[in-house]
Amino acid sequence: MAHHFKIKKNKAGEFVAYFMYNSEPIFWTEGYASKTGAKNAIESIKKNGPGAETMDDI
User: Fold this and answer.
1) CA-CA distances (angstroms) from residue 12 to 1, 15, 24, 51, 53?
2) Domains of the chain by range and CATH?
3) Which of 19, 23, 43, 44 shows its CA 20 to 30 Å from the CA of 50?
């Protein structure tokens, strides 16, 4: 499994969704009070991510 999402709890007890590639986190969400909130964030990324523009500040 080269890439996948993983939900883990942070030190504050919040649920965080991590996008993993080769077992390394590439990016992660803010913390959510519930696991459902983290799952909703994953679904939003899957739905809205493919059409996202790339911004370059350089």
Assistant:
1) 29, 9, 21, 32, 32
2) 3-50 (3.30.160.160)
3) 23
